[in-house]
Automatic annotation (TrEMBL):
Pfam families, sorted: Ldh_1_C, Ldh_1_N
Domain Lactate/malate dehydrogenase N-terminal as annotated: residue spans: 5-144
Organism: Sulfidibacter corallicola
Protein's recorded name: Malate dehydrogenase
HAMAP family assigned: Malate_dehydrog_2
Family: Belongs to the LDH/MDH superfamily. MDH type 2 family.
Active site per database record: H186 (proton acceptor)
Keywords tagged on the record: NAD, Oxidoreductase, Tricarboxylic acid cycle
Amino acid sequence: MSNTVKVAVTGAGGQIGYSLVFRIASGELFGPDTKVVLSLLEIPQAVKALEGLAMELQDCAFETLAGIEINSDAQAGFDGVNWAILVGAKPRGPGMERKDLISENGPIFTGQGKALQRGAADMRCVVVGNPCNTNALIAAKNAGDVPFNRFSAMTMLDENRARYQLAAKAGVDISQVRNMTIWGNHSATQYPDFFNATIGGKKATDVITDHEWLQGEFITTVQKRGAAIISARGKSSAASAANAALDHVKNFTRPTEDGNWFSAAVPSDGSYGVEEGLIFSFPLRTKEDGSYEIVQGLAHNDFAQEKLAKTQEELKQEREVVKDLL
Ligand SMILES: NC(=O)C1=CN([C@@H]2O[C@H](COP(=O)(O)OP(=O)(O)OC[C@H]3O[C@@H](n4cnc5c(N)ncnc54)[C@H](O)[C@@H]3O)[C@@H](O)[C@H]2O)C=CC1
Ligand SMILES: O=C([O-])CC(=O)C(=O)O
């Protein structure tokens, strides 16, 4: 017997949407025994493009795709959804920081937050559209009685970027790099934590002896990778962002392998001194029962404490800017 999962993707007509929806429909996300109903959302002007996207999805003849719905109304689009992947938002251009998008993109998430109350009892939401931590906060605060911990924002792309950089520097296969945490905001203040990362089961700082590189170039490369892609490609990352969104949902829907963890921005419960209620990226583990926990007990020296304080401060400032939307 097969289950059916309904997945909403907003901004499905955009760049990330085009890389994302086929992989969800193919069975990659929930496995070959789970049928997927895709609920595609767009602004009214882009609904026509979604009709074309739906034709292409049909033409893939995916055996796991049980249906496609197209909507420009979030209330209708989120009806009965199990997962809502909120991508629909404007991307930044060259020279901008992601928080410069806040006034334009923030209001999108008030209406979508309200509409998410129509989701299924187990509804989970991940915000990809930037600035994603603060947009997730807006959605969660507008979602009435939907539990706060159903909302997350994506820092998985940052984690993947950080793992690649460490693997390349150490000259090892990327599978060797584990325990990579992105702390804080999906922004240039994020802290990619090499101190607690491991390479081949050893501390990354024992394997990579160039600590100047770890404390300098490694961190800034990860923090500014999005901007580097915009500068090289003329558009922001899309396929890698879609790939990370899939990794994010997989991480939340499967128990985490022993000894490892993954990064996502979730409501702080006060762990590591982060103000309760901020949507902050932490190391997480998904348990057998499907709930997640924040990994406790990781050490932070003065260098790390300073980075954590900086990214927390930025999130508080972003929250202040959108306080009328919360
Ligand atoms: N968290 C992360 O790691 C990443 C986040 N992003 C962010 O993802 C967002 C989307 O990026 P792209 O797909 O490249 O942009 P895009 O401009 O190609 O597509 C965005 C789509 O969203 C649609 N849209 C806008 N408002 C909407 C609404 N209210 N409801 C439904 N759809 C709506 C637009 O019509 C457009 O088709 C941007 O904000 C970008 O900065 C991008 C990469 C990584
Ligand atoms: O940099 C951007 O604006 C898009 C994004 O979030 C990323 O690539 O991480």
